[in-house]
């Protein structure tokens, strides 16, 4: 499978987080939300505006700039 940025994944696809780029503060914030390497997430909505993810039973909104720092692999 090919590694992509989270912002490139269409709505309805499940992915596995491979890596989070950026400073430690950014990584710590995402890890606290359940977005960390090895975690499976669903790209609930990715058309315009923020990207909506489903992590477990929780939906989260991420800005496109943030999504450009998250490397994923499609399932």
What does this structure look like?
The protein has a single domain (3-74), classed as Roll (SH3 type barrels), CATH 2.30.30. It has 75 residues and is α+β, with helices and mostly antiparallel strands. The mean pLDDT is 95. Strands 1-6-2-3-4-5 form a six-stranded antiparallel sheet. A hairpin with a 2-residue loop joins strand 4 (51-55) and strand 5. 17% of the residues lie in helices and 41% in strands. The longest helix is centred in the middle third of the chain and has 9 residues, at 24-32.
CATH class: Mainly Beta
CATH topology: SH3 type barrels
**Element-by-element helix/strand order:** EEHEEEHE
In what order do the strands lie side by side in the largest sheet?
A: 1-6-2-3-4-5
CATH superfamily: Ferrous iron transport protein A (FeoA)
Structurally, the number of domains stands at 1
Number-wise, the strands total 6
Low-pLDDT segments, ≥5 res: none
Sum up the overall morphology in one term: globular
Number of alpha- plus pi-helical segments: 2
* Corresponding CATH architecture: Roll
Which bin fits the share of residues in helices?
10-25%
Q: On the 0-100 scale, what is the average pLDDT?
A: 95
Q: Helix/strand/pairing class, anyone?
A: alpha+beta
């Amino acid at each position: 499978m090919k590694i992509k940025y989270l912002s490139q994944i269409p709505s309805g696809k499940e992915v596995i987080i491979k890596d989070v780029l950026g400073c430690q503060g950014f990584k710590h914030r995402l890890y606290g939300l359940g977005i960390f390497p090895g975690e499976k997430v669903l790209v609930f909505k990715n058309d315009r505006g923020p990207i909506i993810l489903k992590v477990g039973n929780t939906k989260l909104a991420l800005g496109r700039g943030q999504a450009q720092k998250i490397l994923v692999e499609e399932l």
